[in-house]
Amino acid sequence: MTIQFQRTVPVFRIFALDKAKEFYLGFLGFKVDWEHRFAPDEPVYMQVSRDGLVLHLSEHHGDGTPGSVAYVNMTGVRELHRELSDKKYRNLRPGLQQQEWGTTELAVIDPFHNNIIFGERTEAMSA
């Protein structure tokens, strides 16, 4: 059988489910695909997604490290920036960064110091 990689799913450590939902659902526009707990008072492990981007969020000790980074190649980064700016989220107002290597990037930091950098190729790379 041929080896085929299908999808990478970053796991971000979270510490408060309500803050995670406010950020990922309310601000970034993700939806909850599923949540799992071993018991009602146990930590949550959940999947959120938006337009093909899937993230796992975990309250479990040892699942991910605060300050992790995920780089997301995408199209429409300016539209995403406009969408997020229009929400006037009180904890973060990310800007666009034009990188010298030919991408326009939008970096967001969640309440647990995890970083997502959304990048779109906007010009050809020079040699």
Listing every helix as H and every strand as E from the N terminus to the C terminus, the arrangement reads EHEEEEHEEE
Q: What percent of the residues sit in helical stretches (DSSP H or I)?
A: 10-25%
Average of pLDDT: 95
Q: What is the subunit arrangement here?
A: single chain
Beta content = 25-35%
Per DSSP E runs of 2 or more residues, the count of β-strands stands at 8
Q: Give the overall shape.
A: globular
**Distance between termini?**
37 Å
Low-confidence stretches: none
Tally of contiguous helical segments: 2
Q: What is the C-alpha radius of gyration, as a whole number of Å? A: 16 Å
Major sheet, described briefly?
4 strands, mixed
Overall description:
The chain has 127 residues and is α/β, with parallel strands linked by helices. Helix content is 17%, strand content 34%. The chain is built from 2 helices and 8 strands, in the order βαββββαβββ. The strands form 2 sheets. A 4-stranded mixed beta sheet has the order 1-4-3-2, covered by helices on one side. Strands 5-8-7-6 form a 4-stranded mixed beta sheet, with helices on one face. A hairpin with a 5-residue loop joins strand 7 and strand 8. The chain is globular and about 50 Å long. The mean pLDDT is 95.
